[in-house]
């Protein structure tokens, strides 16, 4: 029992160590029993060879919850332990493992729950006669008992205590330490350092998590981003990084991304395009202050913005143009008179007068007509205000008629014509194909209708072109297209033209109009096939005999058909004897009530293989006494619903049919001549033909005709099977 208790204690201790949060440690330091007496003051019985009153001492330790009145009785709620024999009477116990490997000092009691801070401790010193007998139930073995309760805080320091009972002394110490990774007053705080995806921290003295450098958060799982990284617009996966969220950019993710295509704009939030001053439009690409940004006006002009990237320039005097880039030439209207030369100035001009003239524009003359100032026969006249004027003859100009007029200087002739100055006029000598005063009229070369055979003429410069109709070619569409131009002959044949047609000279082994057919081996020599001769039908005389024979044959065929139709109709209209009942005693399926209704009801003749015999019990009877049952006797396996031609008895069958003609008339000759092959049930190998039924039905009917030959009456009964 003691061994089992010790084993259970060890197992429970191991299990508690697995789930423990702390350990209560008890260190037995010294035990003194000077007289070697038991608790009942009896002397301990020593073993063989031992001195008298020598107590072999072992201990039982019981740790339980706090009790105001400590009871040494079980249960030991926090744990218990029984030591081996540790000494005799008085002895000291060193730390660590002793001589017995089953004992280690201090004694450890693992806790799997929060340390409550109080406890009750029972230590019993017991005597045993044998080291193997460690039973604790016998009170006679008790040497001394310690029962106490204490308050104990968690810590590494040992609490010393001494218990004296008058005859014995026990010196011991105890403490409660937290297990690894457990912290706090009750060892209830768990903290295990880690550096993985679930945390990056170490543990402080009280079990608090101390984050590694670069990490933060409750479990140190949040990296500390780059200093300055925007908390809202940036994030990081590792310490020191700064990754921007969508719509933000920059080292610290504090710059918003503008709207794509934004040119002269800013943003406060992503995808904005707030235009800068002077710019407008969706992409801020329209210059609203074009004058300031581009300064388009020149020569000191004043620029005015008109919005949407447009402007106007107010030019200074003497300049013009959209940007005032053009200077106005005040001398352009030739303000100087009497041959004075003009000098352009800024917004002005000056005239340099020839000798004899003066004034702002040289309008005043110091000469008179008496001085003969006019040249080239010009007529001079004095002006009332002073000066003179010259009237120039034809071909001259100038104030004094000193300039000869050149009419060809302006190149009045077009299209390469030559200009001839005639003095007082000019003449244009035109190139070929042009006409008119200035040679600007193109001569119509199609006026003479040069294109033949309906060709379309197109006029050119001293030339024309013709668009020819099909079948003609050439400059004037006068040449017919060759029949052999498109190579109509095949397989290496030679094409020859003959008037308005072509013929193919075929190579050996080929024939046909275009030599497209492969022919059997022919005698040597080329074969000439004339397609157009066949097409044009230039052969012999018309075959009148064949045509007449064909017409006569058709007429004879029509007359024969008409005669046949008349015969059939006459035969159908013949008078018939009075109708007699055709019903036998045996009822029929889908019966025809009267055999005289053949005209309204058609019965189809079908193969015997398609008919199911439903009248096997019927017998064939006749008027002849000897042959009344002869048909059935000679042909026992024949289907009695079918009437067939049998070998060796055709005459008898014909007699039977002739006797039935008075009651059932055939519908037409065509039905008598036709027959369908059938197979006899008796196993005959050959196929025989049977005549059509006496009363035939149409092939379109939904019913099949069968024959019922009555035993009692010699009559034909028509039955129809669905």
UniProtKB/TrEMBL annotation:
It is found in: Apical cell membrane; Membrane. It comes from Aotus nancymaae. Residues 651-702 are annotated as: Disordered. GO terms for cellular component: apical plasma membrane. Disulfide bonds join 178-187, 191-203, 211-220, 315-324, 353-362, 392-401, 430-439, 468-477, 506-515. One of its GO terms (molecular function) is calcium ion binding. Residues 287-325, 327-363, 365-402, 404-440, 442-478, 480-516 form the EGF-like domain. This is Delta-like protein. Putative Notch ligand involved in the mediation of Notch signaling. Its main location: membrane. It is a single-pass type I membrane protein. Residues 651-663 have a biased composition (Basic and acidic residues). One of its GO terms (biological process) is cell differentiation. Keywords: Developmental protein, Differentiation, Disulfide bond, EGF-like domain, Glycoprotein, Membrane, Notch signaling pathway, Repeat, Signal, Transmembrane, Transmembrane helix, Ubl conjugation. The chain crosses the membrane at residues 544-568. Residues 176-220 form the DSL domain. Gene3D superfamilies: 2.10.25.140, 2.60.40.3510, Laminin. PANTHER family: CRUMBS FAMILY MEMBER (PTHR24049), DELTA-LIKE PROTEIN (PTHR24049:SF38). It holds the Pfam family EGF. Residues 1-20 form the signal peptide.
